[in-house]
Specification:
Number of strands: 4
Helix content: 55-70%
Structural class: alpha+beta
CATH topology: Glutaredoxin
Radius of gyration: 17 Å
Number of helices: 9
Largest sheet: 4 strands, mixed
Number of domains: 1
Distance between the termini: 16 Å
Length: 204
């Protein structure tokens, strides 16, 4: 089965806006998704990226304008300046990785974590918030948390981050399919075209 390697930051508003469309794309073509949360600040440090708070006022203003446009187009509510904006994402990332390793519904979990930050004014660096998110999805939060605190979960988090840089990733979300990189939820149409082409090639 073809698979999409999905590199994303657990604080990424753009990943939240693209999440449902990515899932729908994968379902349409029966393509798997490998969920790979990354330490985006580390990626930035290694690829020349600039954290949001350090960007010029012009760049910050344009980001907000673009977010508003996409919110209107997609009809997805999102607070562009949430109360707990972009806290340390290490624990939430490891929590997501742990759920995936346990075979749980990682797609629902990471989207709910993003929604907690961007829609519900919650601090996703807080372990209690993560446990509450898991409980709302009927997922075993305590079990996930125990796994998230292991060396294995942290090693995978570092591995995904290193992998991302090696693949040429420099922002979130980024989708890699058949060795080709697509940066941004606004590139999902190009990703879909590539997936469709690959599927057509295997059925002829």
């Amino acid at each position: 089965m073809n698979r999409i390697d999905y590199y994303f930051w657990i604080n990424s508003d753009w990943a939240y806006l693209g999440a449902d469309r990515l899932e729908a794309l994968a379902a349409r073509y029966d393509v798997g998704i490998r969920y790979k949360p990354v330490d985006l600040l580390d990626v930035y440090a290694r690829t020349g990226g600039i954290p949001l708070g350090q960007r010029s006022p012009e760049r910050q203003a344009y980001r907000q304008a673009e977010l508003k446009r996409w919110i209107r187009r997609l009809g997805i509510p999102l607070n562009i300046t949430p109360r707990h904006m972009c806290p340390n994402g290490d624990l939430a990332s490891r929590f997501t990785i742990a759920a995936d390793q346990l075979g749980l519904n990682v797609a629902a979990l990471y989207k709910a974590i993003l929604a907690a930050e961007w829609c519900h004014e919650q601090d996703i660096a807080d372990a209690d918030v993560l446990l509450a998110v898991a409980a709302a999805l009927d997922l075993p939060g305590e079990r996930i948390m125990q796994a998230a605190l292991t060396d294995k979960a942290n090693a995978l988090y570092r591995q995904y981050t290193d992998e991302a840089v090696a693949q040429g990733v420099f922002g979130s979300p980024t989708y890699v399919f058949n060795g080709e990189l697509y940066w941004g939820q606004d590139r999902l149409e190009f990703l879909e075209a590539s997936v469709a082409q690959a599927q057509a090639a295997t059925t002829h």
